């Protein structure tokens, strides 16, 4: 096989980028323009020399997926943010359910979806790269594998508050001829912008430049009427991880107040906000309940990877003592605890057989993408709690953790798994798994 060849294949699944995934001999072929079940003639544009992997585009489709639709967004194709957009919402749900079962052996009882919005307008937090030129700025995202920026104006999955704020920002910045930051030449002014909303009309806008001085940021902030508050962040590092950004308040409120699952939550200019708080609230709710909806309660609960503390607050309504653990200093401070790794936290509990936390009534854990991993799973097996509720944004690592916790050496039995469609139009899925001690 070589680039330029045309082959005929049927896509069986969808990659997380939205390409159809087919097999041809030993090769895995990722095909732009094919949905699962569709067969097409595919022109190859890349064949790996290291592994049996190739990429191509469908030049002719021989059949059509029943859920295929024209993507409702005009940026689709250049912007890669919504890889499932060419499927209707119910087909997206069916695909997610099938993939969980086939790829990860995760049988879910339900896929929980938001009733409203048709899978659009759900994002309450959106970051943009600033591109284009003075007088014609573009706010967008990097196109896959390139440093080219795809325009995201009028993004259909953004909350309407954010769309309005982005529109005004571009108009005013163009009127002032604000320069975008040039990543290659390493000069220019405005680099990234980050919009967050409380879903009720308040938007907090963070303007990010590469340099600690800017010819335009303060004047631009004064011209904007949509955001309730504007902050200025400086980030001169490569890559768009904003955690290292230093910050100055410019005007207005520097914090949003949100209600997530009935818990009041404050979020500042650089604070993490779940992209879809309404949907994630349903997952938090289920995480602290049992699958049928009952409420576990008792003496002691552990909240591992507690983050902003929403689950800690929910658990405190039902347990006499709730011990959160979190390693990120800012979040730990908000929780009133010392930052600590879960590994150290559990080692300390296991080393104190008479301590109150040695026999918790419930352990809740919401680890990052990599999952709990072998050490924490082995510690949880030693702890042998009566209930263990896990939340995960990655079915791969959840599967691995479940194998460690429920396999021959595991101390738990899996009762049920449920999925939450927190980011419609994308392959992302949030999961909650309920386990009980064997
Ligand atoms: C997926 S987030 C969940 C946060 C929180 N439960 C929530 O829903 O908002 C994972 C959290 O775990 C923290 N974290 C990552 N690795 C950790 C570790 N080894 N020990 C303790 N906390 C950790 C991160 O700082 C982050 O806040």
Briefly, what CATH class of the largest domain?
Alpha Beta
Instruction: Compute the number of helices.
Output: 9
Please bin the fraction of helical residues.
Answer: 10-25%
Query: What amount of the residues lies in strands?
Result: 25-35%
Structure in words:
The structure is a single chain. Helix content is 22%, strand content 31%. With 438 residues, the protein is an alpha/beta fold. The protein has 3 domains: 1-65, Nucleic acid-binding proteins (OB fold (Dihydrolipoamide Acetyltransferase, E2P)), CATH 2.40.50; 123-261, Beta Barrel (OB fold (Dihydrolipoamide Acetyltransferase, E2P)), CATH 2.40.50.1070; 276-437, Vaccinia Virus protein VP39 (Rossmann fold, 3-Layer(aba) Sandwich), CATH 3.40.50. A 7-stranded mixed beta sheet has the order 7-21-22-20-19-17-18, with helices on both faces. Strands 10-9-8-11-12-13-14 form a 7-stranded mixed beta sheet. Strands 1-5-6-4-3-2 form a 6-stranded mixed beta sheet, with no helix packed on it. α5 links the parallel β17 and β18 (319-325). α7 (342-350) runs parallel beside α8. It is globular and about 65 Å long. The model has no long low-confidence stretch (mean pLDDT 95). S-adenosylmethionine (SAM) binds at residues 305-308, 310-311, 325-328, 331, 341-342, 366-368.
